[in-house]
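Students often ask why inverse folding is considered easier than folding. One informal answer: many sequences map to the same fold, so there is more than one right answer. In these notes we will look at a single instance of the problem. The structure comes first.
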């Protein structure tokens, strides 16, 4: 790591971690606004608004009969009903939602009116819509984790049926496939490269972005195995790519040179070790996954830079009910809506 890297010799101070929000359900993805407002994906079929003073309001896109029931484990496997996963703001401030429960890309206004943008591609169902983002040209980029049913078969088989879809003036098309557990994606500041977490393969892959939106020059960024199931990713202003490792509940960063540094480790050692061994031997099951989890942000799934200076880091999770946050020595890379 270069001596001028702000993450050199820095680690998250657990004593300085604060929490915001309460009684949240599956706060998987978090959006931060300049005024301090946070928006969190919520398993009740929408998003929760958290005001700077802590006041909360849920904006739900789903009718009660559309919401999934049962235990967390049941919903994790079967993903019935509306289950907002990845979020971003549309150009007018509405929400774009990759819905992991309905297998659709959706739009929801801030008062809860919902519409479907995409529910099939090339004549077949989308699969598990995971994450969505916009670029400076107004194009939408969508990741689909897997097309297997139930989706957890993908983890058990290490299938490479994930893909990235592009929606532009030409319509919708798949621009990258053969991916193993496609998850969050991010662009570098000039949008020359697109980085995506291949969660089940435990690696970050990047593509060169051509002018017409086609992707080329596929390569692994950083280690071939980052040490866990990389989930949410985000760049800081220096060029480090931060990533959460879900179930290991670890926060790492990959430097521009490709070196890996661990910033926070909140995992359960025994549960993580059992899951790691199962992954190496090709026998991962939902039960082993459920047995590995931390306490701060259980099943740490995402990170978001916010605050007035983009130096406050918020952690999203699948099994948490609140959002941990801490201060970073380096600001996050401003996202398109900032």
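Output (designed amino acids):
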């Amino acid at each position: 790591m270069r001596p001028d890297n702000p993450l050199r010799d820095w680690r998250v101070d657990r004593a300085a971690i604060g929490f915001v929000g309460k009684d949240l359900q599956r706060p998987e993805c978090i959006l931060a606004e300049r005024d301090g407002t946070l928006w969190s994906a919520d398993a009740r079929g929408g998003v929760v608004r958290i005001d700077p003073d802590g006041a909360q309001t849920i904006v739900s896109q789903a009718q009660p009969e559309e919401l999934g029931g049962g235990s967390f484990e049941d919903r994790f496997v079967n993903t019935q009903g509306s289950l907002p996963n990845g979020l971003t703001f549309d150009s007018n401030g509405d929400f774009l939602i990759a819905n992991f429960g309905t297998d659709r890309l959706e739009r929801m206004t801030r008062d809860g009116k919902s519409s479907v943008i995409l529910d099939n591609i090339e004549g077949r169902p989308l699969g598990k819509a995971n994450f969505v983002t916009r670029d400076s040209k107004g194009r939408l980029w969508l990741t689909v984790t897997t097309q297997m049913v139930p989706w957890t078969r993908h983890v058990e088989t290490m299938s490479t049926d994930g893909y990235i879809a592009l929606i532009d003036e030409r319509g919708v098309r798949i621009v990258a496939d053969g991916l193993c557990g496609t998850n969050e994606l991010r662009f570098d500041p000039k949008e020359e490269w697109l980085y995506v977490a291949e969660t089940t393969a435990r690696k970050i892959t990047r593509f060169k972005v051509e002018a017409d939106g086609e992707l080329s020059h596929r390569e692994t960024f950083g280690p071939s195995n980052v040490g866990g199931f990389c989930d949410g990713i985000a760049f800081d202003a220096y060029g480090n790519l931060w990533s959460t490792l879900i179930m290991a509940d670890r926060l790492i960063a990959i430097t521009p040179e490709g070196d890996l540094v661990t910033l926070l480790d909140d995992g359960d050692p025994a549960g993580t070790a059992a899951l790691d061994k199962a992954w190496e031997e090709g026998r991962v099951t939902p039960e082993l996954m459920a047995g590995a989890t931390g306490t701060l942000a259980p099943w740490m799934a995402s990170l978001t830079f916010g605050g007035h200076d983009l130096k406050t880091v918020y952690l999203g999770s699948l099994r948490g009910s609140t959002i941990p946050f801490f201060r970073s020595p380096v600001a996050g890379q401003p996202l398109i809506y900032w």
